[in-house]
Design goal:
By secondary structure, this protein is of the alpha/beta class. It has six helices and seven strands, in the order E-H-H-E-E-H-E-H-E-H-E-E-H. The chain is globular and about 45 Å long.
C-alpha cells in the first residue's frame, strides 16, 4: 500500500468561497485503488505556495502526490510551473497519456498544461480542476503509475510483465 497526497489548487476554494469538488473525488478514487490518503491540502493559485505544499508532501514521504487545478490557460494557472520547479526528473509520458485520453472525450483535452515528475521518491502528477476531468485523467494513468511507484520505491517491478 502506498501513501498519496491530494493538493487542490484553487483561489476560491482556498478562500472558502467554493467547495472543493475535485479533491474529495480524487481521494475516493485513490482510496478505492488501495492508497492511504490523508487530509486534502487546499492552496491558492500562487506558485511559491504550491511549491511549498509539494515539498511538504515529499517531506512527509508521500509516494504519489496529485494536484488538481491550475493547469489551464488562465494567467493564475501556475501549477505546472510549480511542479516543474520542484521536480528533479520529468515523467512526460504521464501527462501525454492523460491528454490522449482526454482528447478521446473532448477536443479541449489538448489544452491541459499538466505536468508530472519525480522528486526524491515521490511522483507528482498534475490533474485538471474539474471533478469530471480530474477523475478521467487519473483513471487513464492509475494502473501504470502503480508500476512506476514500484520501481521508484525500490520494490520488485517486472518491467516485462503485462499489466
Amino acid at each position: 500500500m502506498y501513501t498519496a497526497k491530494v493538493i487542490t489548487v484553487s483561489d476560491r476554494s482556498a478562500r472558502g468561497e467554493r467547495p472543493d469538488g475535485s479533491g474529495p473525488a480524487l481521494r475516493e478514487m485513490l482510496e478505492q485503488a488501495g492508497y492511504q490518503v490523508g487530509d486534502i491540502c487546499i492552496v491558492p493559485d500562487e506558485q511559491p505556495v504550491i511549491e511549498q505544499a509539494l515539498l511538504r508532501a515529499v517531506e512527509e514521504d508521500a509516494a504519489l502526490i496529485v494536484t488538481t487545478g491550475g493547469t489551464g490557460f488562465s494567467p493564475r494557472d501556475v501549477t505546472p510551473e510549480a511542479t516543474l520547479a520542484v521536480c528533479q526528473r520529468l515523467t512526460p509520458g504521464i501527462p501525454e497519456a492523460m491528454r490522449a485520453a482526454s482528447m478521446a472525450i473532448t477536443p479541449r483535452g489538448c489544452l491541459s498544461r499538466g505536468a508530472a515528475g519525480i522528486r526524491e521518491k515521490s511522483l507528482i502528477v498534475n490533474l485538471p480542476g474539474s471533478p469530471k476531468a480530474a477523475r478521467e485523467n487519473l483513471q487513464a494513468v492509475l494502473t501504470p503509475i502503480e508500476h512506476g511507484l514500484q520501481m521508484l520505491r525500490g520494490g520488485p517491478a517486472d518491467c516485462a510483465a503485462q499489466p
